[in-house]
Amino acid sequence: MSFWLIGILAGNFLPWAGLVFLILLLAFGVLVAIKLKTKSYPFDLYLSVFLCLGFVLVACLSVPRQKIEGEDSQQRFVATLLEYPTEKPNSYQALIHINWADSASFHNQKILAYFEKSDSIATWQPGDQLAAVSNLQRIQTQGDPFAFDYQRFMANRQVYFSIYLASRNYHFISTQNHLSIWFRAERFRAALIRVLRQHIKNEESLQVISALTLGYRKELSPETRSYFASTGAMHVLAVSGLHVGMIYLFLTILLGFLKRSSAGRIGFFLTIGSLLWFYALLTGFSPSVQRATLMFSFILFGNSLKRPAAIYNSIAASAFFLLLINPRLLTEVGFQLSYAAVISIVFFFPRLKKWIQPKNKLLDKMWQLFCVSVAAQIGTFALTIFYFNQFPTYFWLSNFLVFPAAYLILAGTFLLLILSPVGWLAVPIAKLLAGVTFSTTFLLQKIALLPYSLVENISLTSVELFLLISMGATFIFFIKFKNKGLLFGTSVLLLGFLLFGLSQKLSLLNQKKYIIYAREQSIHLINGRKNYLICPEVNQALPASINHAVRELKLDSPTIIYLDSCKQFASNDLIIDKQFILFLDQTFQYNETKNHPKTQHNEMIESDKSQPEGFDPASETKIDSVMRKGTILNLANLRPQQTIIADL
User: How many C-beta neighbours within 10 Å does residue 106 have?
Assistant: First the structure.
């Protein structure tokens, strides 16, 4: 398993790794051939290395190479809808699969489509086909070097192009006669959500129930996502091992009588295994569900053979098979968090549980729940900080609430779906389910409002993440094997982590940079932690990406200067005078244009009575170009989302 992981990591991040492993494999192949006749020392060593290198090479070559064969162009195509369209403010969004296009390079590609709003789009279902003509455009990242790389995120899902389809440019063709099991599962899930919608009237409660039980999170509001994330309860909304484990426990209790005979054990294995995989299919096959379902399948198989479950072997086997089928899963955040959490729980939970052993059953259950929460956070906190730049401090408190609530909501939802044809039974169940969900969300909102509930803007580099994970692994092995060398290794890695962090801080204290945000036409000047944001107008929105720069570069809050209301500015490192900016002995010159929209003059005066002195509401300031050291950068030629960053 470890060599397979090495191969996948190398294939993902080192383009030349395959060639290196091939050369090493051939070299050790020659050494094995030389020693083959005598089989004398070190033949066994050469053979072992040769086999390991072969395993690593196969894993490295199994990683799909990112291919973007098509170019931005207008295409006629026939496509199949892969999911229900999701309503956006100005359009409907859905993934489509191109069956045929003018250019063969687009055949069988997945495309992110945005449809002009119309009544007919809302009735489309997965499996429906359409014919269209429009411009296919390559998905672009926002251009901010510190922001989320959306282009890479979509490329990892093998989606490279997007398209906007006006109503006149596409039309419905037909529904496929023979739907795949995937499309049937999507339609069945939609039918179940329609049943829930008939009984659950509170929209937020419906969104939470749909996400928690059926994995449908597309309609979750940003506010709901926010307080679930800020309290450390987001894992409940993402169908995961918790949900699969609850279903597995319920089914083993319900069907336990089948294990009394050998034929019954086979039926027990097939029935529960089939139901678990059907639930995984129904909820969209997220990485965490795949992991949990495959792991429980191994446990089920072992139990049917009357062999004790080896939990670590089950975890490793599930990861190996999933990565064998889809090596790209290793770069999925959900996959990483899922395995980090389950390994940490399996290792730390029994050890934490021993610290306190309450005699009261209720206190004992609460202590166990606390231990599970802490064990999961030990394994995932580094990844959480690296990917989300925040850490919820009250995760343990929210888990006291969401774990029991999740069990009640999961059980209540399935009971409601089963009994929905019987109205007089479904109504009280629906009310109870809605009440539990509403109470849970209400209490989570209150937890999110507690002081210091969320530590934000934490940055962690990839090197620091590697050192933290390595330190955690060596410390786990030290606890397991009580080897002083492992403790020494943990100490060395900790020292390396601290020294690297110190060197990063020293370099950031001496940084001298400028950033130009093309969309907002703003200039960000940085001197150590001190920084200035120069904007054309006082009423314009600040660049959204400035928060990323402040977080990653460890900056103080920026001093914001508006050129239309502040024609002169002077400090020890910055001077602004008319069209010149002198920053750290380097000169920036900007061109400025002014418009005089008479129609807006009175409106602006009436709408904003608190403009700073010197602001002329009849004028509009705009930075057209910036010149540094004789090099002119025309902002009009930049992509709107492009950000330029350079050292001074």
Answer: 21
Using an 8 Å Cβ cutoff, are 589 and 598 in contact?
no
3-state secondary structure string across 189-201: HHHHHHHHHHHCC
Could you tell me how many residues make up the chain?
A: 648
- What is the DSSP track for 300-320? HHHHHTT----HHHHHHHHHH
Q: What is the pLDDT of residues 195-244, one digit of tens each?
A: 999 999 999 999 999 999 998 888 888 888 888 988 988 888 877 778 88
Residue 633: count other Cβ atoms within 10 Å of its Cβ. 15
Amino acid at 602: N
Spatial contact of 133 and 163, defined as CB atoms under 8 Å apart: no
Q: How do residues 471-498 score in pLDDT, each as one tens digit?
A: 999 999 999 998 999 999 999 999 999 9
Residue ranges per domain, the chain? 2-62, 73-179, 185-232+394-454, 241-331, 346-389, 462-508, 512-647
- Rounded to the nearest 10 degrees, the angle between the axes of helix 361-388 and helix 395-419 is 100
Query: What CA–CA distance (Å, rounded) separates 648 from 644?
Result: 13
pLDDT tens track for 366-420: 999 999 999 999 999 999 999 998 999 999 999 999 989 999 999 999 999 998 8
**Candidate CATH numbers 3.50.70, 2.60.40, 1.10.599, 2.40.50; the one for domain 73-179:** 2.40.50
